[in-house]
Amino acid sequence: MTAAPGALSPHNTDPGAFRTALRAWLLDHAPEPLRGTASTPFQGYWGGTTTGFENDHQRVWFERCLERGWTAPRWPSEYGGGDMPVVQFRIFQEELRAMGMPLPLVGFGLTMIGPILLSEGTDAQKARHVPPIVRGEVRWCQGYSEPDAGSDLASLRTRAVLDGDAWVVDGQKIWTSHAEKSDWIFCLVRTDPHVKKQAGITFLLIDMRSEGITTRPIELISGSSPFCEVFFDGVRVPAAQTVGTVNDGWRVAKALLRHERGMVGESVAAGGARVDVLKPYTVRDHAIEAIGLGADGTLADPLIRDAVAASEMEQALMRLTVRRANDAMKAGDAPGAESSILKVVGTELNQRRWKLAMRIGGPDALGWSGAPYSDRDLALCRQWLRSRGNTIEGGSSEIQRNILARTVLRMPK
Amino acid sequence: MTPREGATPLLVLDEDQRMLLDAARELLGVEAPLSRARALRDAGQALDHSLWQHLTDQGWAGVAVPEAHGGLGLGMVEAAAFMEVVGAHLAATPMVSALMVGPLAPRLGTADGRIVALAWQESARHPDPSRVASTWNGRTVTGEKVVVLDGAHADAFVVSARDGSGHLVLLAVDAVDATVAPLHRVDHRDAARVRFDSAPARVLDAHLADLEAAVDRGTVALSAELLGLASTSLDLTLDYLRTREQFGRPLGAFQALQHRAVDAFIGVELARSAILAAAFEPSALHTSLAKAQASIAATKVAEEGIQMHGGIGMTDEHDIGLLFKRIFVAAASHGDAPWHRRRWATLRGY
Predict the structure, then answer these.
(1) Best residue of A306, A321, A352 to probe chain B, by most B CBs closer than 10 Å
(2) Which domains are present in chain B?
(3) Mean pLDDT score, A162-186
C-alpha cells in the first residue's frame, strides 16, 4: 500500500486518509523488534548527553520520526516539530498504541518544560532551548520539591538573589528525577521572602554543568534510585534564563503540575511493570501458578480468588475510565470530572495489586537477592516496594483529595 | 445504537441520545420529584402507574423493543442512560422487567405498557439463569420462583422451565394462572414470590442464551439505576456539607469529611465507566463489572450519606433514607458485588 503524496502532511484535512497513510508509513518505518514493546509513557529514548540509545532499533525509530518532526508532533515546525493538528495527533497516538510502538522520544523536556517555554518563553528562549529538546540533545529534570517543601510546595526556600545580570542561587532540591543524567534543570526559587509565599517565587532554567551544583542519588526502600538531591552553592544563573516575569513562577509551575499528575496516574495504570522479567505479569496467572486450580476449576484459595477478581476488576475500571476521558476529548467535550481521579485511582490500585502479588507469592516473594529466589519473584518484591512511593510522588493522595474536594466537589474552605 | 463495524465505539453519548435523555429528564423532573416517591410509599403504592403511562406514551416502555413490534428499536446505551434518570428520581417503574422481557418476547406487549415480569430466579443466593428445576410437560408448568421483580403487579410472566429431556424452555403464563405472594421488602417495591401449579403456558421461541442475555440486560439496568440513585444521594450529601455549619464552619470545610466525600465520588465515577462499557460493548464481563462496582459505590454513597447528614440522616423524614433502602435492595438483586466477583473469576478461568 503506498500513500498518496501529501497525505501525511499536517495540511491534510481528511482524517481517514491520514490514518491510512500513517499506517502504511508505520509498516515501512517502525522497526519490527520494537513493535508490541510499548508499556508506559516513560518508556523509550530519553535523549541528552549522558545516556545513549538502548539499541540500534531505538536509534533508527527516533531518527525516522525526527525527520518528519514527529519526535514532537504537536510543536511548531520552526522549532523542529511536526505542526500536527490535534485530530491528526490523536490518530498518531492511536496508531502507535495499536502497533505497541514506544514514543520515539520521552522525557520532561518534551512533556513539561517544552510546552511551558512554547507558551511562556521569550523568542530567544524558545530558539535556544526548544530545538535541542526536539532533537533529543538535551535532557531536562524538574527542581521543585525541597526537604521542607513537599506537599506544601509553595514554602520552598532555595534562594536566588540578583547580582548584576545574574541570579546567585543557594539551596537544595530533593526528589529530582534522574538529575544525575540531566543536562538542564527547571527550578522554582525564592526571590522575595517578604510577600505571601506563592507571590515570591521565580521560575529559572539552570545548566546542570554550572559551577556550584552537586547531585546525590537517593536510594529508595526498593533499592532503586530514580531520584536525586541537588545542591546549589552560589550558582550563577544568567537573568535571561528567567521564564515569565520575576516573582510569577508559581503560576508558571501550576500549569505544569496538572500535567505531571495526569501522567503519573496514567502511566501507572497503563499497568505495566517496567521490569522486563515481569513482562507479562498478571496476578491471575501468578495465582493460578502459585496456588493452583481445584477440581472445580476455581482457585484453591477462595479468599485469594476473590482478591484477584477484585484486582482485575479495578484495573478494568481504571482502563475504562482512561478510555472514557480520552473518548470525551475525541468527541469534543471538555475534560470531565473523570480525568481528575486518575492519579489517585491509578496509584492506589497499583499498590493493592503488588501487595496482592506478595500475598500470592507468600514466602517465595520475600527474597531480597540471590538463590533460591527466582528473578521473577525478586523483581516482584522490588516492584511492590517501589509502588509504596506511587501515592506520594507527583502529588500525594492526600493532596489530590484536597484538590478534588475543592475543585470538583466544590467543598468550602 | 450499533457501533460502526470494526471500530471501537466511543464511550460517549451522541447528540440524538443526549436529546432523548433531556426529554426524559424533563418528564421525570415534572412527574417524579423525590416527594412523589415518598407519597407513593406512604400510600402503600409500589408502582407509579401514572408515570408508567407517561413513559409508555413517550416510548420508553419499548425502548429496546424492535420498531416492528411498536418499540423505539434502540439499545442498551439509551436504556442504561434512561435507567440512570429513573434511579436519580427514585421512580417506581417496571422498567427493569420491560428491558428484560421486551427484546426477549416482543409480542407480549411490553411496548404498550403491559407489565410482563421475568420469572427466572429459583435460588435467592444463586442468581444463575441456568439453575432451573421448574418443569414443563408440554401443556403446563410447575415450579416456584423465589424473587420476581415487578411480580406483584405483573399482567403476565415469562417463565423458565425444563422440558422432559432437560432442555431449558421459556414460557408465557398469564398472571391469573399463577399464585403470586407479594414480598413487602425494605424498598417498598413490588417484587413477589410466584408459584406455578400446573399453570397453562405456551412456549416462546427463545432459549437459554436469550434468557441469559435478558438477565444481563436487567443486571445492567439495575446497575444504571444504582448509578442514578448514587448520584442523587451524593448530590444531597454534598449540598448538606456545603451548607450545614457546626463549630462556626461548614461541615465540608473539614478535611476528614472532604476526603471521604472524594472517595464516594470516585466510586461513582468508576461505576459510570463500567456501565458505559456494559451498554456500548455488552459482555458478561462488562455486566458483572458494572453491577459489582455500581453496588459497591452506591452502597458506600448511601451509608456515607446517612452518616454525614448526622441526626436528620437517620430519620424517616429525610429522603436519604429512602434512597438508602432502594440502593440496598437493588445492590442485592441480580447478584451482589461478591457474587459478581465470583462470576468474573469463573469467566476468566479461575
Answers:
(1) A321
(2) 15-107 (1.10.540.10), 117-207 (2.40.110.10), 210-347 (1.20.140.10)
(3) 96
